Amino acid sequence: MLNELQTKQALQQVLDSVELPKLTKKDEKVFLERLAQHFPSLIGQLHTLYGERYDFFLYLQKLVVVLAKAFAGRKRKWKNLDEKRLSNPSWYRSEKMLGMAVYVDLFAGDLKKLQMKIPYLKSLGINYLHLMPLYKAPEGDSDGGYAVSDYRKVDPKLGTEKDLAQLAEALSDEGISLVLDFVFNHTSDEHQWAEQARKGNPEFKDFYYFFTDKQEVEEYNQTCREIFPTVRRGSFTFLEDVEKYVWTTFNSFQWDLNYSNPAVFNAITDEMLFLANIGCEGLRLDALAFIWKEKWTQCESLPKAHTLIQCFNTCLQIAAPAVLFKSEAIVHPDEVAQYIDKQECQLSYNPLMMALMWESLATRETKLLTASLKKSFEISDQCSWVNYIRCHDDIGWTFDDAVAEQLGINGYEHRRFLNQFYTGKFDGSFSQGVPFQENPTTGDCRVCGSLASLAGLERAIEADDSQAIEHALKRIRLLNSINLSIGGIPLIYQGDELGILNDHSYLNDEFKREDARWVNRPQISPQAVALAETKGSYQHRINQDLKQMIALRRNHPEFGNAKTEILETYRSQLFAYCRTNAKGEQLLALCNFAESTQSIPASICDILGSRRPRDLLSGNQLVGEDILLAAYDVLWLKVTE
Ligand code: OTU
């Protein structure tokens, strides 16, 4: 490690030896100040990663030039946004925050048409829009765009780079923060880096992990998890033409980048800042757990993976500080937590809560949800969860087996049960999902399906069973209520606001057929939107329930920057939490995860200082000694006077 004096000298040395782009006096001051402020972190992090190398300083010089050029190329509009966000660093903890994730083509057609959907988004209250990967990608299967061939080119089917720039500005003008994917664990095999590497170009040959020795590949396979075992066993793909193995954690056309090479870090930082300069305010760090590899480890969530992300974040703080990182770690809860830090990822998906809400619906028991969130929900108050119910991927049952064990639940058996339940193979299940990536060795499996279908609406409609339909609608409302109120940014997945069911049309597409996740990537048709506006339809009810809760959320600060306490209800079907903000404003949420009526003594409200709070959802004030919750009911209790 370098001491303070050495760090200062290093910065001076860098500045003396490189040529920085021309900047205005004011901009130059801003840049140099930020660089000086963050240089100690930057050099420390880089030193941890690459300090052993003789050419360490050379890469450091090059990196500073990358940062300066990106800053120089950043539009005034985004530089102003940098200042605005820096002066209000917890802006994303507001009760006004509401996210949506959409595919440009499925939601709108293309980027131009998406711009015309801004009024729709605003009518829902959306101010955080995650656009699924929209970059140039291979024809045919591109893993839904997660195989990027060029970070700077827009997929021509979606429009042009200019369309994207215009959309970014239009969104920002309407107060909507754009979130883009930063797919940095791998590129597609059609990326020019991959093509050059394959040809043996010395500049790129170490951009990826190549092996000639089968034995070595087998050794890595012994300790690494298989992510897509039905695509290919192990984590490597043999390239016949060059007779080499290449590391491919996901599909064979997604080549893992080699971050032990500082040239890769610099090159990807350049791409990252290009994305930042489009005008996005969030980057979703795709598959971030896998970015650092070491022999005889699981090659997931290694300490240097964290250093690497911190280092990327430091680069953002210098060149584009308005941009936040969102962690996409769908892993063990303790590992998820390790990415959540102001210096690393300010935002993180909340896969534990997502999975356990579904778990509680299946079991009608909340003990695992309660115990797990008691342990893992609390995070730094400078960070925020991004809560979700469904997304474009599968559901993986990522709870902590040790917590389950203490409750008498065997993790392995329980996951088996959940997979059976949600794929409709369990007798009496309300759900209709599709299995994904069944591993023939471990028996592991994940589940796909839309919110409405997994919650029982599809089956209930098929059976024409009005009670089952009612229950399904209430399950959807229940999950939405938690998503919106427990604390964090709620992220709605496209179509869930419209009650869209599973879409099996992917089975007719040879490039999608093998990937069941497409069952939940439906086209959002004008008919689906119209149906949700038609009074009397189930979809209308789902939509209205959601809108009512969104309106309440926006208008009550307790839903924003506040602390969440998960409560013990001592009722196996009930789940409860209390939110308290700095002003002492409070909200108590009670949820019934069963179709039978449950009761709980009104003394649970003592945390609010009154046994007569009002339920914001129904408007009713509580009376009596016991609180009754009908099937899947939710209460949002607040002392109003
Ligand atoms: C992500 O997910 C994306 O969300 C997927 O759509 C991509 O296919 C994938 O990366 C590759 O880019 O395997 O099934 O444990 O679960 O990062 C989803 C983490 C995935 C992985 C997650 C990955």
UniProtKB/TrEMBL annotation:
Pfam families: Alpha-amylase
Matching InterPro entries: Amylosucrase (IPR044077), GH (IPR017853), GH13_cat_dom (IPR006047), Glyco_hydro_b (IPR013780), O16G_dom_2 (IPR045857)
Domain Glycosyl hydrolase family 13 catalytic: 101-553
Domain of life, source organism: Bacteria
Entry GO MF terms: amylosucrase activity; hydrolase activity, acting on glycosyl bonds
GO biological process, one term: carbohydrate metabolic process
Organism: Vibrio sinaloensis DSM 21326
Name by which UniProt lists this protein: Alpha amylase, catalytic region
CDD domains: AmyAc_Amylosucrase (cd11324)
